[in-house]
Design a protein that fits this description.
globular, single chain, seven-stranded parallel β-sheet, alpha/beta
Length: 229
Amino acid sequence: MNFKDKTVIITGASSGIGKALALRLIDEGADLWLVARSEETLKEICAEAQRKGVKARYSAVDLRNHDELTALCQELRENLTGVDCLLCNAGKSIHRSTVEAQYRLHDYDRTMDLNYRSVVGLCLAMFPLLVARRGCVVYTSSVSTLFPSAPEWSAYHASKMAANVWMETANVEWAKYGVKVKIAYMPLVRTPMSDATPAYRKMPAMSADEAARKLMSLCVSKRMTYKPW
């Protein structure tokens, strides 16, 4: 895919991989719609796009909020005629044992709302627009979901694996409509989210820009997945 003048939606666009994607796609000349919570950063990215003669819009929403997600889906369907690429990159990481979570069911609610429910909601809403352009969905998952279950990551891994299964199913069902659905099983990437876990700060990690390049490559590839080995 040549990204010039293609309509691309990026969630989690204000930091980490999402911001790196936005900046790279601006240089490619894509027509962007950026989604994240940090409005000031989104404004800055859109201003950078404008300086380079590229069209970029944003929606500052919390995808965990059901009403805000519904309003976003309606806004996108009312303002776009088609979507070439939907990059589902927003995510929440949480490191807590099940024992410590005895009275914290909201940890699971918030993680599932962002990592699973918002992804499904946005994909379903964008389906007609993806069909119109024979577009693709790229979901940023984690390579850790391919490993045996790790202690203290139940909420994160459960939400990511639920999204993996949904994406695999959608890939089969949507193929006859010309829509491709892809999963990027990303390794550790140096972002504000990963840095929230102290042990990860000293581990080897891919840069956000390197990760963005991998996701863009997956968009144009015939492969359904990216795995780091």
